[in-house]
What does this fold into?
Amino acid sequence: MTITDVKPHHIDEILAIEKLCFSLPWTRRDLENQMNSDNCIFLAAEDETGKILGYIGLMHILDEGYISNVAVAPEYRRRGIADTLINALIDRTKARLSFLTLEVRESNSPAIALYSKHGFKPVGIRRNYYDRPKENAVLMTLFFDREENLQYADNVN
Ligand code: COA
It folds into this structure.
């Protein structure tokens, strides 16, 4: 498996996985915007034949990172693909961002377990954030160099 930046020829496969995974999937335009934006990182996991197994997207503003989507094709789950994608994203961002944050459905225990494994902590609830079905979101955040950030805050105050 290789981790690569998403390119135009990956979009059809990502769209198909999106439709399998989510009740309100992103559109082709949403995916293309994420691929083309200077404020986004969009990574895919592909096998040796070039088949897309999963992907992860991030939007960054100043020193803040927001994970916008993570999915692995159903038949390739529980093989460490999401682990590899998150590690790749953390490696790409930890030197320049202060934290990564995301929302996840309260009932999505596989995803909550995944993010917890990578050090994300629940920091809040957004009530009725999701539709189809209506559900709360858990807000989870991974702070990079938290102690350093706090020391910096102490120094400037
Ligand atoms: N039950 C419990 N924990 C699970 C799990 C499951 N079914 N699937 C993954 N995890 C957690 C575990 O902590 C696991 O670590 P472990 O293997 O050491 O126990 C960790 O995630 C990594 O597992 P991995 O095999 O890399 O995950 P995956 O490639 O199967 O992908 C998702 C995990 C969540 C991305 C995948 O289930 C998926 O695409 N779900 C649908 C889309 C989705 O809900 N995305 C998140 C939106 S916020």
Notes: The pocket of coenzyme A is lined by residues 21, 54, 70-72, 77-83, 104, 108-111, 113-114, 117 (CB under 6 Å). The CA atoms of residues 23 and 132 lie 6 Å apart.
